[in-house]
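Quick question, first post here. What does this chain look like in 3D?
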Amino acid sequence: MGRRKIEIQMVTDSCTRQVTFSKRRTGLFKKANELAILCAVQIAIIVFSPGGKPFSFGHPNVESLVHRFLNQEKATDEGTSKAAESRDETTTDDNLNQQLLDLLKQLNAEEKRGEMLEKALKAKRAAKGQPPVDQLGLLELGELKSSLEDLREKLRTCMNEKEVISALLILAEQQPRT
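> Answer (accepted):
Ran it through. Tokens below.
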């Protein structure tokens, strides 16, 4: 059975409404992303869930587009400042895009490093004559779990540090230049 056209009306059941909202929101944000990429446009979407929780999508980001939208009337009066703001926004967008590309390169390098470490670990286990993880005993699995939890905690700490650094960088970029 194919798709059918449904009548657009308010979903009465709150649980169904929440599920519908979540699915439609994901689809809406995906379409907005495609529009931004295919047509090279700047786009911002802000929606509130039935529970009142806000969700947003923006390309390049919501804050700069909302700021630009709210200051649009002022900028038309100050013709030359609009061009300067546009250059500043473009520079900021370019910087953010460059940071994104750098982070994606880092992520790719870390994924490759992880694959190499996985291969090295398998080779080391094979050289020591240790069985694969699915063949370990209860004691060895407990030790492995403990070491993995330690690793997770170290990674979580490292990620938190990187988030703080990125937040500080964003705040530094938003400071007015003197």
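The mean pLDDT is 83.
Residues 137-170 form one domain.
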